[in-house]
Amino acid sequence: MPNPVERTFERILFASRWLMAPMYLGLVAALGMLTFIFARDLMYYLPKLMTMKSEQVILVALTLIDLTLAANLVLIVMFSGYENFVSKFDIGDEQDRPDWMGKVDFGGLKMKLIASIVAISGIHLLKRFMEIQDIEKAAVFGASELFWLVVIHLTFVLSGVLMALMDWLQAKAYGSKYVGK
Length: 181
Description:
Layout: H1 4-15, H2 21-45, H3 54-85, H4 106-131, H5 135-138, H6 143-174
């Protein structure tokens, strides 16, 4: 039978996971902010649609995709983080429940996180390259700025590959039950 002091200490430590709950509520606010910016940008560009060039529409679409991927990232971190570190969702057998909920462990969360970051970085880089066609914006992004955007993107890609390699090595060493499925 464990010592009462030890048992109390362990209960306090276990209960401390609830200190994360306000952070997940903060992510709900961040999701709301992204939704607001998405709607604001959409409402700003819709009236201009008839006068926009196709390149401008593509840039707007990339901006909206970028915001959507960021929102997806917040949602994945919010749901998976809460379920992995605080408590399981007790929402019954909801038909709307995403398939991945309850199945993404910390390793899977890491991979989804880096994949989203790489996608967001790639879209941002593509937007900058497309803006080079616009003479006014081309002056804003010189060769050194584009160089650093490429370096940062490649750093994210390399980080993702190295994280996947570490998960693969861990699975090989300890068995697949320790790697995100």
